[in-house]
Design goal:
The chain is mainly alpha-helical. The protein is built from 28 helices and 7 strands.
Length: about 625
Amino acid sequence: MSFFRNHTLFAPVAIFVILILSGSLMWLTSGQESAIMDELAHIPAGYGYARFLDYRLNPEHPPLLKALSALPLLSLPLTFPTGSSHWTDDTNGQWDVGTLFFYGSGNNADQILEYVRIFPILLTLLTIVLVYVWARELFGNEWALLPAFLFGLSPTVLAHGHYVTTDIAATFGFLLATYAFVRFLNSPSRNRLIWAGIALGIAELAKFSVALLIPSFVLFAACYAIGETIRKKNSGNPGRLFRFFISRACLRIGQLILIFLIALAVIYVVYFIVTLNYPAEKQVEDTKAILASFSPAWAGNFVTQLAGLEITRPIAQYFLGIAMVLQRSSGGNTAYFLGHVSSGGWWYYFPVVFLLKEPIPSLILIFIALLTGLAVLFAKSPFGMKRMRRLGEYLGIHFGEFVMILTVLLYWLYSIRSPLNIGIRHLLPTLPFLYILATVGIQRLLRGDVKKRLWKIAGVVILASWYLGETVAAYPYFLSYFNEIGGGTAQGYRYVTDSNYDWGQDMKRLAAFVKEHNIQKIAVDYFGGGDPKYYLGDDTVEQWKSSKGDPRIDGIEWLAVSVNTLENAIAPTENGFTRNTKDSYEWLTSLRPPKEGMGQVPEPDYRVGTSIFVYHL
C-alpha cells in the first residue's frame, strides 16, 4: 500500500467513484421498476406524515424514512384520497389508500416513485460514507476502501437501497448509533454522549428491530468496564479491583441512562410532529382495534390509555408500532423456502439465504476473516491470567472490532430465533460490520513475508474483480440476484422467493412485453405494489387467480403469474400449514407438468424480468 500513501488523492477519488457507481446503478434500476409490495403502504403513509402530520397509516413502522422520502412529493400537485372511507373510517387502511393514491386519483405513479426514491438512494450513499469513515479510523484510508466497495456494490444493497422501505434506514441507523456509542466509550465527553443519544434516537426511528441496540449497548458498556478493570495496574489487589469495576459500572449505567433518555426525547419530538393532526379520538379507536387481541391484555390497554392523553399521544403511537411488530413476529409469515411452504418459519432460513444470495467472493473474504479471527483468539495461552491480560489489551486496542463481532452475533441470533422469515434484507444492518471484519481478516492474512504478501494481495484483487463482475452482470435485476451456489439469478426462485426474488418489481416490464407482443387480452395474477390495469389498461387485463381456473374458458390465451405466487401455490406445505386446493394451480400443473426437482414450476413460454412467468395457453 506504500504506492497509495504517496498519492493522497487516491482514497478520496476511489470513494467518489464507488459512490457514483453505486448511485448510478440504483437510480437506473429504480427507473425500470414498478412499486414493490411494501412501497404501496409505505409511500402513502409517508405522504400522510409529511403533508398532513397524520400518523393513521402504517404505524407498524417508524416514520423517519417514509416521511423524509415523501418530502419531494410536496412540490407536486398530487391528489390524496382524504375523502375516501379507507382514510376516514378504516383502521390502518394503508393498502387501499395506497392503491387509490397511486392509481385511482389521477396521479402519475412513475413520477411518484421517481421522487420518493431519491432519499433512500442518498441515505444508502451516506451509509457507504459512514462505513468508510469508521473503517478508516480502524485501519487507514486505503484499507477502508475495501469494506466501502463491498457494501456499496453489494447486489443486496443495490436492490434494497433505492426502495422506500425501512431496511436501508435500519442499516444506517444501526451503524450510526453503534459508531457513535463506541466513540463515546473510547473517549467520553458531554458532546459525544449527546451525539450517542441522538444517533440512538435516529436509529430507533428507522426500524423497530433496531431496539436490539438497547440491550446491546448495556452489554458493550459492561464489556468496556471489564476491559478497563483488567488493564488496571493494581490488578493484584482483588478488593480494590472489584471496587474499581463497580465504580466504572455505575458510571457507565448512569451514562447509558442519559443516552437512552436523549434517544427517547428524539423519538418523542419526531412522533409529536407527525401526530399533530391525527385526531385524538381516531388514534384511540385505531389503537384499541389494533391491540384488541394483543397479549398480555394489560399492555395493550396501557398503550390505549397513553393514546388518550394529549401529552403521551406521540409515545403511545411509538409503543403501538412496537406492539404490532411483536404480534407479527410471534405469528410468523407464510413463505416459500427450499421446496416447501410454511407459516411457522425455519431456524436455518437466514444462514441459508445468506449463503445463497451473498456473492461468493465476499463469502470467501468473510470466511478468511473468521479463520484468522479464530486463530488470533486461540493463539497462545488459552487459559489463565495471561489470557485475561491479553483480553484486556484486546478490548483496549480493538474495542470497535469486538463490538462489531458481538453485534453480528447478537443480530443473527435474534434473526435465527424469529419465525418471521422476511428475506435477506433483514440482515442488511449486519453487512457493514461483516465487510469491515472481513477487511480486518485480510489485513492479518497479509502480514509476514513480502513475497507471500504479494501473492495474497493478488488474490484479494482477483476476488474484488470477481465481486464487481457479479454486480455488473446482475444489473438491473439486483433484487433477484443469487450466487452460483443458489443457481444464479435465473434459478434462484427455486430456493426462496418473496423479497429475495419477487417483490412485484417487474410490472412495468410486463406492460412493455404486452405492447411488444401486441397482446389484446391477458390474465394476470400479480404479487406486488404495481397495478396491472394502470400499466396495461382496463381492456387488456383480467385480474386472475388460481381458483378462477383456465382463462381460456373466458377466451383468454395469455396468463402472467408472479413466481412468488406460483411457488406458494404449488410447493408442498409443512408445519401444519394448509392450503385450499382451488388455490394450488392444479389446472396449470396438469397442462404444464413441472420438471422434477425442488422449486420447479410449470415452464413458462416467456419470463418478464425475472419474476413474472408468462404462459401462452
